[in-house]
Each structure stands twice: as structure tokens, then as C-alpha cells.
Write a structure and sequence with these properties.
The chain is α/β, with parallel strands linked by helices. It has helices spanning 79-82, 86-97, 121-138, 153-168, 186-194, 204-215, 227-236, 241-247, 253-256, 267-274, 298-310, 333-341, 370-383, 391-411, 421-430, 436-452, 462-471, 476-486, 496-508, and strands spanning 10-15, 25-36, 42-52, 61-67, 101-105, 142-151, 173-180, 285-290, 315-320, 367-369, 418-420, 460-461, 493-494. It has a 9-stranded mixed sheet with strand order 1-2-3-5-4-6-7-8-9, with helices on both faces. It has a two-stranded antiparallel ribbon with strand order 10-11. A two-stranded antiparallel sheet has the order 12-13. One of its GO terms (biological process) is lipid catabolic process.
Amino acid sequence: MAPPPTAGTLLAHDALPAAFRPSHAADAVRVVYQGVGYDGASREVSGSVFLPVGAPPAGGWPVVSFAHGTTGLADHCAPSRTGLSRLERDHVARWLAAGYVVAATDYEGLATSGPHPYFNGEAVADDVIDVVRAARGLHPDVSGSWLVAGFSQGAHAALFVGLVAHHYAPELDFLGTVALAPPVHLPLLVDVLTGDGGRRVSVLLPFLLAGLRASHPDFDPRPFLTDAGGALVDVASTATLVDMFRAIDRQTNDATGITGIRARPGIDPVLHACRVPVTRMDRPVYITAGDSDEVVPVEVVESFVADLRRTGTAVRFDRHGGATHADVLAAGHEQVVAWSGTLAASARPAGPGVTRFGALDADGDGRLTEDDFEVFALRLVQAFGEAPGSPTALAVRHHYRELWRAVARRSDLDADGAVSQAEYLRLLDGAALDDGFDRDVRPLAEAVVRLVDADGDGVADAAEFTRLLRACGLSDEESAVALAAVDHDGSGSVSVVEVVEVVRDFCLDPSRGEAGRWVFGRT
């Protein structure tokens, strides 16, 4: 059997109905392109591509990959089948008027096989990126310069795109992220939405509870909901957004059993897994929120913005007075377009300086967190072509978390969930890490070697390991130096033992060189 086409390959296209066409669109096309399922399975994904009126500029039209807000979980909710909502269509029209091609994925599992992994940003980020590749296959004057703009659920996806885009599709020129009313800090958001028992159920919650089952098959919220709450979750499996607004009418948190839902067994870990990790992004980010947003309260977005700024990410934040959730699609759009036009000329943020702590602190915010390690792993597996939910990727990601726990267990003296430079240096200067650190590193080393070991001989040969180093962002010259430094016995291949040694030595003293730095990737 022939292997599937590469991700983003355009497989089919046909004209969209005239009613689906935004203003300022010279053409409106439904596309089907090659995607990758969250579990690594080959999967087709559908979407829409809109071309602007007029001749393309020199170098081609830049692209906005638009990530739509919640439409529902079933196939009939896909925008390429039903059209974007009026407000989203108007939003897309403004990008077209500014001279951008707009490529809008449906997300995997909407109008194509498989379930839709709602609120799994890792699962849909590649869909948002691959539709740009498909748009380039549709028309020769579509350039490789692009940005992502997402609304609501799509803003959550867009922030995941911002974390991995450069690593997942290095052949494209990714410029930055626009996130409109993003549902971030999901555990905090759920606390805010469910804290008042008399509050009407948020339209977000039934979709969230139903959609989480796609990525977490063992998760079932219905046992701790009332009959009315369980019915809402069942409705959410097939309802459109309009249907769900009708279903929640006059339904309160208390009446459905949703009040304080985060305290229920099994909920918090699932919500935590859906969070946008807070770590440094290597491209600028524009976030907007509305003071009157009834779905994503502005204080939750402000908390995320403050945390993201502390990582060193270049963030612009606009808070729009009186704007509801839907209003944010139009509020301040002229400023968003103007900001986007500056991105091609903006300098890329410099990487952190290499100091004992700074070489390990890849996002440069002066502390290590679990999210740093989560993103290291996610970038690595996606850069290496592994879907984030495949068995191989899950093993790598799990062992990065275990490495974080090993570092935190030894260093996080105040138990605040972060390791400061002072805490780390106190550990290093006071006593060497004990031999148990090797045992903590070894499972990660084994998982990384399995990731690259195409011929299954238990080691990474020079070509396999060089491919890994390139996926981690090293140049050919840097890769050659790193390979020589890791290959201690000069065998021409890298063993698990050699990986353990360089990672251990790097964690013990990042100032001694960069032989093990590749395992933490590069922003």
C-alpha cells in the first residue's frame, strides 16, 4: 500500500455555494487536504479557501489561517458545509479587503472521518497549519508568509499554533498569532463559569464536557450531573451552536449539576490537559477580549496575558469596553490588520543568553515550569513528524514530564510549581544531583532514541540523530558539533547511555557546553 500524501497536500476542491462567499472574495473554494489525526492515523480534513479581489502583490498574497469558533461537534456543523456564521464571514471579509488569502479549516472530525477533538488544541493545530499548505496548492500566487487568527475555540487553537507553527512547518514563514476572546486558563475559566449556582449554564460547558470524550475516551461527566445536565451533554454531541443556545435556555448551573464542577473526581486533570501551556512564543501575539464577554470573562484573559508576558513573549492586548463575546470579532479589527502588516518587518525575538540557568530556561522568563517541558516535548514530536497523540509521541511527552518532576523534586524549595534561578543554582552549587537522576533521565533517553530509530537497531545512527537535531532547530554545522559531542565512543551512532550522559551533564551544569541542550529544543 502506498504511503499517504504528505500533510497539507490538496486532495480535492470545488466551488462553495454563493451564499458562503464573503464580500471582497474573488473566489471561494471548498478544499479537502491531507491531514494527520491526533493519534497519528492518516486523515482527510476539509476547509474553505477564499481569494481576495485584485492582482497578487510581488511574492504572492499573504495568508490568514482563520480558526473558527464553536459550531458543534457533528459533521453537519462544519463551516465548509453550512457556511461561516455571519459575524465570522464579515470578519473574514475584512482580511480579504486587506489583501490576504483566508484559509479556514473545518478541523479534523468535522465533515470528515473520526470524532472532532473539541478543545484539544494539540489535535487541531496541525489542521490550521496544513490548510495553508493546501491553499498554496490551490493557487500559485499564494505566498508562504502567513499568520493565524482565531476566535473563541479557534483562538484556543490559534495559541497552540503559535507554539508549534515554526517547528511543524519550517518551510513556511509564520508571522504571528491573533487570538480573539480565547478560552485560556481553562481550569480558572470553568471555576468562573460554574461558581454561581444560579447562573445560566454557559454554552461552552456542554460542548466541552461532550467533546472531551474524543481525546479522553474514559471520561464521562454524566454520573455527577443531574438528568437535565446529562441531557445537555447528550444534545451537545449532535447540536449546532444555535441548537445549544436553545437547549440551555433557563438552565442554571445548580439545575444541571454543573456548579463547582471542577471539584468533581477526574475533571481537573482533563481540564489541565486542555490548557494552553504558558511558555515563550517565538512570534508576536495579539489578544483581544471584551468587557461584557459572557462566555470568556475578561479577567480570565487578562490573567493569561500577564502570565504570557512574563515569559518574554511579545504580546499586544486590547480590552474592548462593552464588547460581548461575539462583538470581539469586529471590535478593533482595523488595529489588528495594521498590527499584522508590521509583522513581516519585525525582528525575531532573540533567544535567551547561555548562562548556567539561562541555557536550560528556554523561554527566558527566569524560572522553569511544567509548561516549559510540555512545550519542549510537543515541539519536538511535531517537528519530527509525529502526531502529538501517537504512542511514540505520548511516550516522549510523558518522560519529559517525568524529567520536569525530577528537576522540581530536587529544586522547587518553596513548592510553588516553578523553579527559580536561585533555587536551581542553590541545588547545583550545594551538591551534585545523586545517581538517581540517571534513572530519571533514562526513560526519556529511551523514548527519544525510539522516536528516531527508523531501523529498530536500538541506537540512533548518524543520519537518524542528525535528523533529530535538525528537528530541534540546530543548523547543519551545529548538528555536526553536537553529534560529535554526544557520540562519546566514536562509534558513529548514539546510544541510550550516551543520551543519558549528555542530558544529565547539561542539567547538572548548563554552562559546561551545549551537547545536551538539543533535548530542550529552540524557540
